[in-house]
Amino acid sequence: MKLPPYSIFPNITGDKVFLRQIETNDISDIIEISFYDAIQATTEEEAIEMQDKINKDYTDGSSIHWGIADSTTNKIVGTCGYYRGLDNGAGELGFVLLPQHRGKGFMTAAVALAVDFGINTIGLKRIWAETTQDNESAIKVLERLHFCKTANLEDSGVEYDYICNKISG
To answer: For residue range 29-70, what is the model confidence (pLDDT) as tens digits?
Structure first.
C-alpha cells in the first residue's frame, strides 16, 4: 500500500474534471460545502481552519482530500476524498458538490477518478461510502459506479461498498 503523504500532491486529470489540491484562494468559493467531522463551516475563517485540519490529516497519512475542478474553468465545483480507514486497506470515500453544479456529471466523473486512485495508487481492497437514505443523487452516483448497498444505518443512513478485488481481480 502507498499511503499519503506523497512527495508531490496527486492531481488527477479526467475529461470533465480534475482532482487537485485546494488552494487558499479557492476557500471563499466552497464555504457552503466545507465540512470537518460532519460540522459545516459558516465563515471563510472556519473554512480555512477546516482546510488546515484536512491538510494536517493528509500530512499525517490518514486522508487525502481533493477539490473537484471543472476542466474548462479550473473552478472548484465540489470536493471528494478518503477520510478514514486507509491504514487498514480500506477507505471511506466522501464527496460533496456545490448545488449549482449538480446534475452535470461532475460528481460521477470525480468519484470514478478517486476510486481508480484508491485501487491503483493507494492499493485499497475496499472502498465504502455512507449517505442518508434520501440523498438520491449520491446513491445514484454510487450505484452508477458499481457500489453495492451493504447496510441500513441506525441514523437513517445507508452504507455502500465497492469491493475492489471483485472488480479488479
So the answer is: 999 999 998 899 999 999 999 999 999 999 999 999 999 999
Helix (H) or strand (E) holding 48: helix 44-59
Measured distance CA(36)–CA(11) in Å, rounded: 22
Domain-wise residue ranges, the chain: 12-122
CA 117/CA 17 separation, integer angstroms: 14
C-alpha–C-alpha distance, residues 147 and 153, integer Å: 16
To the question of domain 12-122 being in CATH 3.40.630.30, the answer is yes
For the chain, how are helix, strand and coil distributed in percent, rounded to 5? 35, 30, 35
Environment class of 62 (CB within 10 Å of its CB; exposed 0-12, middle 13-18, buried 19+): middle
β-pairing, 90-97 vs 126-132, is parallel
